[in-house]
Amino acid sequence: MPHSDLFCDNWTFREGFEEAWTRQPQPGETVALPHNAVDLPFDYFDEADYQRMFTYQATIPWEDAFDGQEVWLRFDGAMANTRVYLNGTLLGQHADGYTPFRIRLSGHLVKGENLVTVVVDGSENPDIPPFGGQIDYLTYAGIYREVWVERGDAITILNTKIETPDPVAERKSVRVRTFLDNPQALPVAGNCRLTLRDSAGAIIGEASGPLGADGAELRIEGIEGASLWSLDSPVLYTATVTITGEGFSDSRTTQFGFREARFTTEGFKLNGEVIKLVGLNRHQSFPYVGYAAGREAQQRDAEMVKDDLGCNIVRTSHYPQSTWFLEHCDRIGLLVLEEIPGWQHIGGEAWKDEAVRNVRRMIERDWNHPSIIMWGVRINESVDEDPFYARTNALAHELDTTRQTGGIRKHMHSSLLEDVYTFNDFVLGEFERPNTNEVRRGLRERDEVTGLSHGVPYLITEYNGHMFPTKVIDNELRQMEHVTRHLEVLDAAHADPAIAGCIGWCMFDYNTHADFGSGDRVCHHGVMSMFREPKFAAHAYTSQLDPARKLVMEPVTHWARGERNIGGVFPLMILTNCDRVRMVLPNGQHVDILPDRARFPHLPHPPAILRIDQIDENILGRWGMSWPDVEFQGFLGDECVATRRFSAKPVLSTLQAAPDADSFGCDCQEMRVILRALDQVGNVTPFVDLPVNISVTGAATLLGPDQVSLKGGHTGFWLRSTGKPGPVEVMLKTPRLAPVSLTLETTETGERA
Ligand code: GAL
Fold first, then answer.
1. Residue 569 and residue 521 share a domain
2. How far is the CA of 130 from the centre of ligand 1 (A)?
3. Most buried of 97, 307, 536, 667 (most Cβ within 10 A)?
C-alpha cells in the first residue's frame, strides 16, 4: 500500500458550487473530516435540506517526496455524487456514496500550493442505486469518511486477496493474490514476498515468487498450530506483501483469519459447528450528523451489537458500511452480512450496470474480512429480475469463490439465484391478533416461503420493524408487545433447524423520509433509541446470552400502578437469563417467577412471566389505596446473582451522564454520552420531560444542539475531538436536578490506517 497521510483537517466548506471556484480558494467555514454537509434536527425536518451541492476545498502543498512519485487522493466515502478538481482541472468523479475511490493527482501537481476542490452533490440521483424510487433511510450529503493523500512508486500494490482454502485442517494454507496499480503501464519484472504473522508478530509462514504484469499469487502450505477465528476467540493474523523491482517497491499488511463459514440446509456452520444466527440490522446513521462518524463511533456500534445486545451477526442494511466498523467486527468476533446499496427499486440498464459495479466495489474492498460471511447481491426487497441478478451473482462468485451469496427479498417463491435464500419475514403482524388464544407463528416455514420441494440454506434477514413501530415513550403494554414479537421470532428461529437464524429490524431508530416513519422523519423501529439506549425489546436479545457472559434481569415494567390499561403490571414479564426470579414485597411476601418454557419452548432463556391468575392480586394492595415498593431477585441455582429494586413513589433525583469511555482518540473521533434522569433507586424516569443544557470546552466539540430534551427518560449526544490531545470538560444542567460535570480526555491513538 502506498504511503498514506490522513488529509482530514483544514478543509473549507461552503454551500453551492460554481466551476470558477475550482481555480481559487473560496471563503467558507473551516471543517474537519468526516463531515456532514447539513446537520439535521432530531426530527420534523425537511429531508430535501441536504439534497443539493456543496463545495469543499483544501490545499496540498508540494512536497519533495512527490517528485517522481505517483500521488493520489483516496476518499473512503462521500455522498452522493462527487467530483474532484485539482488546480481547476476536473480529475475524476465517483457516483457511489458508499465505496472508496482514488483520484490520481500525478502529473497535475505543481510546486507550491495545490488547490483541491471537491464538489459533493447530495441530491438523490435517480441514475444510480439506491435512488430512483423512494428509500426508507436518508443519504446525508458530505465527505463523511476520511480522505488520504497517498504516494508511491510507479508500480504499487492496489489490493490483495487473502484466501484460506482449508481453514479447519490441521495444517492450513494461505493463498495471497497481489494486484498492482501501474497507471503508466510500465513493464513489470520483480519479486513478491509474503510474510504471515500471528498477532504477537511471530512469523508463521513466508514465501516469495516472481512478480509480473498481473501481480503475483503466492501460497503457503502446511501451517501448523494456527488458531481458528471464531466468535469467542476471533484470532487474527496478518499477511504482509512486499513487491520489489527495478525502480519500485511497495508493501501492504492486511488482517485475516482462518475460518470456515457455510450456510447449509441444516443451518449456518462456523468452523463446522452449527450456530444459530441472531442479529439486528444496522444503518450507519447518527442523530444530527448523519453518516459522518469516525472510527470510535463505528467501533462502539459494533461492540453494542455484540456485547450490549448479545447478537452474533449484523446486517449492514442496505449498503457497504465503514471499514472501521468491519475491522472491529473482525476483532471482536461479530459476523456480518454485507450488501450492495438499494431499496426496492430497480432502475434502467445503466442503473443496473452501476449496481453490478457496486458488487465489485464492495467485494474488492472487503473480501479479506473474516467477519463477513455472505454478500447480499440483490437490491433489498426488489422484485425478481433474473438476468440482472444472474449478473450480480456471477460477479460475486467470480470475485470471491469462498463466500456464499444471498439477496434480500420479501416475496415468497422468488427465483433462487443465490446460494442462500435470504428472506424478510413479516408474517408476525400480518393479521390482527385480538386475543392471546389465537394461534400465531413467529416465522413462516422455509419450504412454504421458497416454494421449493428441496431444502435450501435459508436465513431470515428482517422481521418486525414497520409491523410494530414502538417509541421510547410508548405505553408499557405496547412496549411489552414489542418485546413479545421479537421473542416470538427468536423462538421460531431457534425451533427450526432449517432456519439459519434471524436478523431483526432493527438495531436503533433512524431518520427517514416523510413517506416512512411516524411523520416525524423517524422510523421508531429500533430495539434501541437513536442514541442507542435500549428499549425493553433490546433485552429480548441480551437475555438470551449465557449468564456466564452477562447476567440479565430486566422487568418489562416501570412498576407504576396506573401506566397500563386498567392498571397494574400483569402479566409481568422479566427478561432474564436467571433460572428464576423472586418478586419480594416490603412485608416479606414473595412470589417466585419461572421462565415461561411453555410459551417460548425453544428460546435459550425464555422470559419469566407472572400472570394475574397465578397470584392473589391483593398482595400488591388495593387499587388507589396502596402500591408497594418491590425488589426482584434473580437466582442461578440457589444463589441470588442479581437484584433490581423499584420504588412505588419514584421521585426525580439525579441526572446520570454515562460516556462510553473516559478517553477517546484526539483525531476527529466521536464519543457518545448518554444522559439518564433517574429516580431515588436508580431507575430511569421514563416520562420526565425536561431540557438539558450541554456545554463543552477543551479538546472536543459538541455534535448537535446544546439544548436537548429527555425522552423516554434519556437523551444523549456525541462529542467530536478536535485534533489535539487534552482534557474535555462537559457541563450538564437541567431544571430540578443538580448540575453534572464530566471530565474526559482525548489522546493520541496512533495509526489510523
Ligand atoms: C423493510 C425494509 C427496511 C425497513 C423495514 C421496516 O421492508 O427492508 O429497510 O424499511 O422494512 O420494517
1. no
2. 14
3. 97
Domain count, the chain: 5
**Pairwise CA distance, residues 296 & 665, whole Å:** 8
- How far is residue 143's CA from residue 150's CA, in Å, rounded to a whole number? 17
Assess whether the C-beta atom of 466 lies below 6 angstroms from ligand 1.
Answer: yes
CB of 400 closer than 6 angstroms to any ligand 1 atom: no
Q: Is 170 a catalytic residue?
A: no
Q: Residues 28, 148: one domain?
A: yes
Is 701 a domain residue? Answer: yes
Q: What is the CATH number of the domain that holds 238?
A: 2.60.40.10
CB atoms within 10 A of CB 732: 22
319 CB near ligand 1 (under 6 Å): no
Q: Are residues 276 and 241 in the same domain?
A: no
- Read off the DSSP letter of residue 361: H
| Residue 752 confidence (pLDDT) | 38
Q: Which ligand 1 atom lies nearest to the CA of residue 505? A: 12
The reply to whether 326 falls in a domain is yes
Q: Identify whether residues 427 and 498 lie together within a single domain.
A: yes
Set of cell numbers at residue 423: 428472506
Domain's final residue, options 232, 256, 280: 256
Q: Does one domain contain both 481 and 568?
A: no
CA 465 to ligand 1 centroid distance, Å: 7
Q: What is the CATH number of the domain that holds 90?
A: 2.60.120.260
Cα of 306 vs centre of ligand 1, distance in Å, is 22
- Rounded to whole angstroms, the Cα distance separating 253 from 94 reads 26
Least Cα distance to 422 among 383, 394, 381 occurs for 381
pLDDT, averaged per 10 consecutive residues of the chain (753 residues), comes to: 90 98 97 96 96 98 96 97 98 96 97 98 96 97 97 98 97 98 97 97 98 98 97 98 97 98 98 98 97 96 98 98 98 98 98 98 98 98 98 98 97 97 91 56 93 97 96 97 97 97 98 96 98 98 97 98 92 98 94 96 98 85 83 98 97 98 92 98 97 98 97 97 95 97 88 38
388 and 436 together in one domain: yes
Q: What is the pLDDT of residue 515?
A: 92
Asked if 232 and 320 sit in the same domain, the reply is no
Exposure string (b/e) for 205-216, b if CB count within 10 Å is 16 or more? bebeeebeeebb
Q: Which of 381, 418, 533, 554 is catalytic?
A: 381
Cα–Cα distance, 647 to 416 (Å, whole number) = 55
Q: State whether the beta carbon of 525 lies less than 6 angstroms from ligand 1.
A: yes
**The pTM is what?**
0.97
For the CA of 523, the closest atom of ligand 1 is 6
- Which one of 595, 615, 646 terminates a domain? 646
CB 100 within 8 A of CB 92: no
pLDDT tens digits, residue range 591-600? 999 999 999 9
Residue 549 belongs to some domain of the structure = no
> Mind listing the pLDDT tens digit for each residue in 181-235?
999 999 999 999 999 999 999 999 999 999 999 999 999 999 999 999 999 999 9
- The residue segments making up the domain with residue 246 are 165-256
How far, in Å, from the CA of 625 to the mean position of ligand 1?
Answer: 46
CB 425 less than 6 A from any atom of ligand 1: no
Per-residue pLDDT at 431: 62
Among 150, 462, 488, 533, which one carries the catalytic annotation?
462
Task: Please tell me the distance from the alpha carbon of residue 508 to that of residue 530, in angstroms, as a whole number.
Answer: 5
> What stretches of 467-570 show up as alpha helix (H) in DSSP?
476-495, 538-542
Mutate to test the pocket of ligand 1, among 411, 462, 513, 524 (most ligand atoms within 8 A of CB): 462
| 381 part of the active site | yes
Instruction: Return the pLDDT at 751.
Output: 42
- For residues 642 and 710, membership in a common domain is answered with no
Using the atom order of ligand 1, give the atom closest to the CA of residue 408.
8
